[in-house]
From TrEMBL:
Lineage: Bacteria, Pseudomonadati, Bacteroidota, Bacteroidia, Bacteroidales
Keyword field contains Oxidoreductase: no
Keyword line: Signal
Signal peptide: 1-22
The name this protein goes by in its record: Lipoprotein
Amino acid sequence: MKHLSSLILTALLGLVTLSSCQKEESTPQQTQEAKFIYASQVENAFQLTPLADLAEGVQTSFDNSQTLPVGHLFLEKYGDYIYAMSGSMYGYGGEQTLRKYQMSEGKLKEVATLSFKGSPNVIEIIFASDTKAYGVTCASRGQLVIFNPSTMQEMGEIDLSPYAATDPKAEAPDKDPDAGTGIVRDGKLFLCLNQTKSMMELYDEPASVAVIDVATDKVEKVIKDARVQSLGMVGHTNAILDEAGNIYFYSGPRSAMFGKHEGILRIKKGETDFDKEYYVSVTKADGAEPTSYGMTMTYYKGKVYFFLEKPSLVVDPNDKTFTKNKDFVPYELDLKSGKGKILPLPASSGWSANATIAYNGKIYFGIHAKDGMGFYSYDPATGQGSNKPVVTTPAGIYKIIKL
């Protein structure tokens, strides 16, 4: 648990990337049209790097990268633009500026910025349309910032403070329900409320999701389910939307680590309440351990792919570099049956255990392994995985998005 607490603390500070670089010759990729952007942390900056392809033998460099200061990284494509921000998570690092980019001659070109007023600690963005998005705040007043991504101007706030859990013994009530992962479906924003006392402490509260009408920005209700606690950990989980329009939320690292009720819940298409017939546990899946957890997940044909943390693989509990221990294994979990399996790929260090993507029928994992660093591939059709990177990178990979 000492190792896990140290690791999640680092992850919460947005540092689940590899700081060191490999010095090796690289094949320039920016001469081709970029299909992806991947992010790495090198020393005190994030490198946002265009990538032309996930093809065998590709090597990348940071020659045409865009940099952001260290903090909690948000990176997403919406419409024709790429949005990125290094936010301040629980007071660590970052800035209060959302940056809007478009691709130009193989590089990210900044076209607009939005500096949020009053330092509300915006760390995640949820897009509703071309003209409306929501800024999720961390350790703030319990507000959800509304802004227009087309004009990059603030439009208002939604007050979430009435929905905050609190400790009756506390000197002052907690007014922040700690918004987490969210997604817009059918005109409703489904927003997880993490209900945390502090960065490393949770309230004993059931999973909570605020259902917000996008047209009016009014909270219609907050739904709860005691089978899971602290659903949709901010910055470390993502909402899954399957082909049928069902939403899946996962608790994330903290619940499993702290011995709380973890797992995945579903809100079916056309519904605004939890599906009482559906629950999947990650810690009880094949190959998992009592405090195992995953972070962001990639959905592909009824299954999710992610890195599963296995405490039994830790060989040096005192390693503070988070590079010696390869305790994160590539994993596949069937959302219908709840059955999972460890994939035939190398285990990764905690510095690179977050980047996965589905592309051309394969799943790619950003791995920092003993024998190589970069993107490894897994073919769900054949069950075969690569034993070396198909794409090598100069540093560990935090996130990848498709353009």
